[in-house]
Write the structure tokens for this entry.
Amino acid sequence: MAPLSTGPHGGDIFGAARELGRDTGEILDFSASINPLGPSPQVWKAIAASKHLLSHYPDPDCWDLRQALATHWSIDPEQIVVGNGSTELIDALPRALGIRRLLVVQPTFSEYAAAMERAGGQATSFETDRREHYAVPIDRLSRMIETGRSNGRPFDGVVLCNPNSPTGQACSVRDIERLATSARRRNLWLVIDEAFIDYCPDQSVLQRAVSWPHMVILRSMTKFYALPGLRVGYAAATRATARRLQRQLPPWSVSVMGQVAARAALNDTAHARKSLAFMDRERERLRMLLAALPGCVVMPTCANYFLVELPRSRHARGVTEQLRKQGLLIRDCSSIRGMNSRSIRMAVRTVQENDRLLQVLSRLLQSGVSS
Ligand SMILES: Cc1ncc(COP(=O)(O)O)c(C=O)c1O
């Protein structure tokens, strides 16, 4: 059998099920951070009512969905570009904006550096500090943006995930506005990835930043709306920037069901409220349980996951593998630039699922099994 392994991203229940000889339904996935309440019930109804559309190409303009998003945000639909997950838009960014060297606030989602490499460009890092729980030092970052240089070489764009993954840290609107002012002075692109911001909506700059010519805001329907399998994300920017991004996307990249489901999900404000209330409660309960595990350090978070450092005697890779053998997936963060060898990320899931993970993890940490 192939050795147990994890790729650059979480969420691969298919690979885990194959390796373990189990059904995907027997895998509990804490490695991707998806709303544990699942998609809105309206999504299932909308999909069932749209079955007849499967034998047609999807709307290449995603018009109805863009209209719905524009109404939701009180902006112009021409300022929105929909992609096959926000990952498709991340991939298009360097080509669309002509970015050759991107300053990435680390540690973070690896697709920014990967997209730069695929586009023949380069990523350069701005490191946040573990001793400050990876909070973004806005003064230091805006000073660097104002120089427009890192390691002595110029960069032409900056990306910041807000909240950031895997750290869970979020910047305030004022902080982002400061960075935007610095970027504008230097004529640099500023990309703010708000994939997880539905969990702290007051920190979103989407509505303000959409009219700033050097900014792009990315959003995802994967996390809060729980649609990872349908692949829907979007960018909001000025009309001119949105057109540049759209031109880099292949035709029909967003499926019929993705468009239908995203609209239904967006409209269900009751499910959104319920999801937020659940997360507020369960995240705090899980935080207390994790903090009570001897030697574990739990980082503060604004999102639906925790970055945790295991006790000194343990290694994230070993613990991740031990849990995986029991059908429990967490994210080993030890190989992420800037993280130490004891760092793991785990999503907040349902009460029963969280209890199961905690039970197995605490037994594992107490046992003498080397991990
Ligand atoms: C910060 C961040 N942005 C974007 C994405 C991509 O999300 P999607 O392509 O599913 O919209 C992820 C996925 O993990 C992420 O963590």
Notes: Confidence is low (pLDDT under 50) at residues 1-6. The pocket of pyridoxal-5'-phosphate is lined by residues 85-87, 109, 161, 165, 193, 195, 220, 222, 228, 233 (CB under 6 Å).
